[in-house]
């Protein structure tokens, strides 16, 4: 089964496009997209330092452009993954009545990390640290999907 997965952060220029790029490289058969809860960067490519850090790992983000999360995304995706608790709350605030689409923290797929969120490298400048955590969570997500489970166990 092909899963449709949406990765969401604040501006859709660092964490969520990196997660999309990492995961589509890891599991190209999955349908992926990314979005931001805010609309400040709509139409822009991922932030230059994040593109460079991802490229150093062989992950190409050059074709991605920021877009804003909308309530209709609940109908388009099988799983929505937020990079932090505020993103998750902002996503849930737009949940249409009756929607059962699961929304989880991306770090739920990397329990071994002990992280409760992916820190925003736009503010921390730790692009490699964010990518390390994103890669760990992406591998955990892939493992769950291969095992036939969408949600973390």
Word description of this protein:
The protein is α/β, with parallel strands linked by helices and 153 residues long. 37% of the residues lie in helices and 12% in strands. The chain is built from six helices and four strands; from the N terminus they run E-H-E-H-H-E-H-E-H-H. The chain has helices at 15-26, 48-55, 73-76, 85-92, 121-124, 127-146, and strands spanning 4-9, 31-36, 79-82, 103-105. Strand 1 (4-9), helix 1 (15-26) and strand 2 form a beta-alpha-beta unit. The longest helix has 20 residues, at 127-146. The chain is globular and about 40 Å long. The two termini are 19 Å apart. The mean pLDDT is 95.
Descriptive keywords:
153 residues, alpha/beta, four-stranded parallel beta sheet, 4 strands, globular, protein phosphatase, LMW_PTPase, protein-tyrosine-phosphatase, EC 3.1.3.48, protein tyrosine phosphatase activity
């Amino acid at each position: 089964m092909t899963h449709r997965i949406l990765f969401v952060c604040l501006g859709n220029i660092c964490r969520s496009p990196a997660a999309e790029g990492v995961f589509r490289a890891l599991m190209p058969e999955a349908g992926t997209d990314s979005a931001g809860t805010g609309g400040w960067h709509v139409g822009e490519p991922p932030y230059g330092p994040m593109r460079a850090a991802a490229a150093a790992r062989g992950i190409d983000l050059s074709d991605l452009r920021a877009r804003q999360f909308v309530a209709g995304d609940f109908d388009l995706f099988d799983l929505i993954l937020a990079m932090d608790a505020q993103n998750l709350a902002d996503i849930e605030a737009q949940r249409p009545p009756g929607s059962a689409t699961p929304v989880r923290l991306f770090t739920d797929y990397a329990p071994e990390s002990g992280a409760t969120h992916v820190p925003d490298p736009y503010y921390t400048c730790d692009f490699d640290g964010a990518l390390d955590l994103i890669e760990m969570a992406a591998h955990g997500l892939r493992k769950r999907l291969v095992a036939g489970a969408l949600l973390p166990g």
